[in-house]
Amino acid sequence: MSKLSEVERLPYIIKSHKSTINESLIALFICAIGDLCAGIILGNMTFFFKSFPGLLVLIPGAIGMRGNIFGSFASRISSNLHIGTLEPEFKQSSILNINFSSSIILTMVLSLFLAIFAKIMCIIIGLNSISLMDFILISLFAGFISCLIMLPITLFISFKSYNGGWDPDNVTTPIVAAFGDLFTLPCIILSIFILEFLNLNLFVKTIIFIILIIMVIALFIHALYSDDYLKTILKQSTPVLVFCSFLGIFAGTVLDSFASTLLNNPTILTLVPLFSGESGNLVSILGARLSSGIHSGLIETEFKINESVAINFIIIALLSVIVYPTIAIIADLFSIILNIQTFSILHLILISLLSGTVLIPIMMVIVFFIGIYSFNKGLDPDNVVIPISTSITDALSNSLLIFFSFIVITFML
Hints:
Elements: H1 3-8, H2 10-16, H3 18-43, H4 46-51, H5 55-83, H6 94-125, H7 132-163, H8 168-198, H9 202-224, H10 228-257, H11 259-264, H12 266-296, H13 307-337, H14 345-376, H15 381-411
Helix pairs in contact: 3-8, 3-12, 3-13, 5-6, 5-7, 5-8, 5-10, 5-12, 5-15, 6-7, 6-9, 6-10, 7-8, 8-12, 10-15, 12-13, 12-14, 12-15, 13-14, 14-15
C-alpha cells in the first residue's frame, strides 16, 4: 500500500479507529498529570541533588525501570485477557501469582543493578557522587516501596479497563507508566529519609545493607528453580532489563552532565519527565498493540509493514502531533504558576515538537523490529518490546531534549 494511498485514507482511518485514538488520548492526558507532578517534584529537588551528588544519574533509570517492569506486567495481563487465559476478576490465579512474584523479584534485582551501574558511571565520567552503599540502599528501599504501590494499581487498571469495554493495550501501559513516574520520585525521597535515619548508626546500616543484598540474590536464585512460567519470565526479562538499566543510567548521566544548565532553567527540568514520560507512553501503546497483534495473528511475523502495522504507526503519529505541543503548554503554565519560567511558551513548544518529531519515527521502526525479531527468536514480545523500546526512548528523549534546548538557548534567546 503506497504512502499516497495512506494519506488519502487518513480521514477513514481516523473515523474507523476513533475509539482507539480517544482511549489513547484520555490515557495520555491522565498520564500527563502524573508526569507533570513528577516534573514539579523534580524541579523542586535541587536540595537533594546538591546534598546527594550523583542522585540525578539514578533517577531516569529508576523511573524507566518502574515503567519497564510494570508496563511488561500490564502487557502480559492484557495479552492473557485478549486470548482468554485470564479472567478479569480479583481472585486467586496461578498466572497472577507468578506475575506478581516476577515483578517483585525483577524490581529488587534491577534496583541493585541500577545502583551499581549508577556508581560505576559516576566514577567513569568523574562525577562527584555518594557511596555505593548509599546508592544501593536508596535504590532498594525505593524499589520495594514502589512494588507495594504499583502492583495493586496495575492490576486494578487492567481489569477495570477491560471490564469497561476499553482495550487495555491503549490504556493500561501508559497509565501504569505514569503512576510509575509519579511515585518513583516520592519513593526515592522517602528512601533518602530512611537512609538518613540509618546514618545515625553505621553498624546497623551495614548489617541491613548485607541482609538486603543476601535476600535479593537468594530470592532470584530460588525463583530460577521454581515454576517454569516464572523462570521463563525471569530468564527472558532479566537480560533485557539489565540492558535497559544501562540505557537508563546513560539518560541520567546526560542529565547530570548538564545539571548546571538544567538547574538554571527549571522550566526544562519540569518538561523532562513530561516529555520522557509521554514519549515512553506513546511507544508503550505501540508496543502493546503490536505485541497483542502478533499473539492474535493480526500482524505477520515478517519484517514488512502490512496494513495493520501501518495503521498503528499512523495512530501513534496522530497522537504525537497532539501530545507534544500540549505537554509544552502544560509545562509552561506550571512554570509560570511556580514562578520558575525561563522559556517563552513558543520556544518550549518548539523544543518539544522538534524533539518529538525526530524521536517518534525512529522509535516506530525500533519497536516494530524488536517485536518481530523477539517473537521469531522464541521470546514473548510482552517481556521484551516495552522494556527495551521505552528505555531507548528515555535515553534518546533526554538527549534530544537537551540538544534542542541548547539550540534554542544559543540561537533564539
